[in-house]
C-alpha cells in the first residue's frame, strides 16, 4: 500500500502542476509531451483521476472522528489551556 500511496501522490503532483500550467499559461504539458488527445495523454489523465480517488481513503482516515489517539490529543490540548 505504501508504494501505491507514493505513486498516487506523484501522479497528483504531476496533475496539479499540469493544471497550474493550464490555468496560468494555457499550456497543457501532458498534451505537449504525449500529444493532444492521444491515447497516452488520456491514460495519464485517467491515472491522475484514479489517484485522486484513491487518496480519498487516507484523507478520510486522517479526519476520522472518534479515534482513540485523536481524543487523547484533544484532551491533552484542552488541559493545557
Automatic annotation (TrEMBL):
Keywords: Membrane, Transmembrane, Transmembrane helix. The chain crosses the membrane at residues 40-60. InterPro entries: DUF378. This is DUF378 domain-containing protein. It holds the Pfam family DUF378. It comes from Brevundimonas alba. It comes from the Bacteria.
